[in-house]
Write a structure and sequence with these properties.
By secondary structure, this protein is an alpha/beta fold. The protein has helices at residues 6-18, 21-28, 32-46, 62-87, 106-113, 132-140, 177-184, 204-215, 229-236, 250-257, 284-297, and strands spanning 51-54, 57-60, 94-101, 123-130, 146-149, 162-175, 195-199, 221-226, 243-246, 260-276. The protein contains eleven helices and ten strands. The protein is globular, with a radius of gyration of 23 Å.
Length: 299
């Protein structure tokens, strides 16, 4: 029987967490050549490269991401073991691993996931945010139970996946109160040359917004573009611009940040998906999330 060298795994895990062999070596109190040699031995035993160089940084390969996620759980269990021995055992909730695509609005994700915390059999939600292409290998190797996304898994994906539509919701333009009050007047003409904070051009939301702007012959002045919708909202707090928000998250944005709605765009709908590795939904938390979204949250 082959045995994994956990000493090598700890070195790899430390470098992956720090993103730098030098920093990891300093924290571990070993030399860089030593830690490099240990990682090389781990790669040889696994038969795959775990890192690739990008400039001066080390980036995890697809295999490296899988190994890193296993290492996270292994060392988390190790910490639990020490705590149980030293302070007595505590109950450990079963994990529910959720992948969130980086373009999925976080307020919308929070609403979709809310039922997870009301299950009769509690679980521990573990959320991972990344590009959909990087989340799919984790789903295929059962490191994720579900991926929540605002687009289906691409047909070109190397892994067999199933897209479950959670429904659609409208898109609302929002802004700080004074900006919103001004832009409501003569809407949508008021948007022409108005400062705007928009999702990045490759994002699903931007792909449905641009045709709407064209149809209504308005050209907002794009002052910032974002991959991260949450960051877009933070910037919007201190800028004179408007930004789009999925209607399902508007109430929370108004309550939490004091934004105001300008208008909900007629005919513009955004679709959300639950992506799984199996056709039939089995995990109780997955079932609760999809049913809540389909029956109560999204149209």
């Amino acid at each position: 029987m082959e045995w994994l060298n956990y000493h090598h795994l700890r070195y790899f895990w430390s470098v992956a967490r720090e993103g730098s062999m030098r920093v990891a070596a300093e924290k571990l109190g070993v030399s860089q050549p030593s830690i490099s040699a240990q990682i090389h031995l781990l790669e040889e035993s696994l038969g795959a490269e775990l890192f690739r160089k990008k400039g001066r940084s080390l980036i995890l390969t697809d295999t490296g991401r899988v190994v890193y996620n296993y290492a996270e759980e292994i060392f988390a269990l190790g910490r639990d073991l020490l705590g149980a021995v030293r302070h007595g055992p505590v109950s450990r909730l079963a994990p529910f691993h959720v992948g969130l695509t980086d373009t999925l609005p976080k307020l919308a994700a929070a609403e979709i996931l809310r039922p997870v915390f009301k299950l009769s059999q509690p679980v521990r939600a573990v959320c991972h945010e990344d590009d959909i292409e990087d989340l799919l290998p984790l789903l295929a190797t059962h490191r994720l139970d579900i991926i929540l996304a605002d687009e289906p898994a691409p047909s070109s994906a190397k892994f067999k996946t199933f897209n479950h539509s959670l429904g659609t919701c409208g898109v609302t333009l929002c802004a700080p109160p004074k900006v919103a009050a001004r832009l409501r007047q003569e809407f949508p003409k008021s948007l022409d040359r108005a400062p705007a904070l928009l999702p990045a051009e490759h994002s699903p939301l931007r792909r449905i917004l641009d045709p709407w702007f064209d149809e209504h012959q308005v050209r907002p002045e794009v002052i910032a573009e974002f991959d991260d919708p949450a960051l877009m909202q933070v910037f919007a707090l201190d800028t004179p611009g408007f930004f789009p928000l999925h209607a399902v998250a508007v109430e929370e944005a108004v309550k939490r940040y004091g934004f105001r709605a300008i208008a909900t765009l007629e005919g513009v709908r955004s679709e959300f998906f639950a992506i799984t590795a199996e056709r039939k939904l089995k995990h109780p938390a997955t079932v609760a999330v999809t049913q809540n979204a389909q029956e109560r949250l999204l149209g």
